[in-house]
Amino acid sequence: MKLKNCKIVVVSGNKYHISAPHGVAVGNVCINRCLEEKSIWHETAHLFGVSDHYDENTHETICGDEKCFMRWNALNGDHFCEKALSEIAF
Ligand SMILES: [Zn+2]
Ligand SMILES: [Zn+2]
């Protein structure tokens, strides 16, 4: 069985000690610490090539859409912005 293109979404809660407050995505795996659906959408989008839409230092939203799921706190978002949709790669 080939797992090369397999994407794995782990919803762990606080089971794993990761530093990110909501979750982390590396390669084809994302681990969700926050169990809220919006946060899981954010981490899952990373698996498909979508970048973070916030400044690493200030956490300010940089895509111009304050309701974008890729903002710092995805719980304050409610959709993927145009930029996010254009970044998705399967
Ligand atoms: Zn992110
Ligand atoms: Zn955005």
Structural summary, described in words:
The chain is an alpha+beta fold. It has one domain. A hairpin with a 2-residue loop joins β2 and β3. The longest helix is centred in the middle third of the chain and has 11 residues. It is globular. Bound molecules: zinc ion (ZN) (2 copies).
Strand order of the largest sheet: 1-3-2
Structural class: alpha+beta
Chemical compounds bound to the protein: zinc ion
Q: Tell me the major beta sheet.
A: 3 strands, mixed
Topology:
Elements: E1 8-11, E2 23-26, E3 29-32, H1 37-47, H2 82-87
Parallel strand pairs: 1-3
Antiparallel strand pairs: 2-3
The structure holds zinc ion (2 copies).
One zinc ion is lined by residues 42, 46, 52.
Summarize, please.
The chain has 90 residues and is of the alpha+beta class. It has helices spanning 37-47, 82-87, and strands spanning 8-11, 23-26, 29-32.
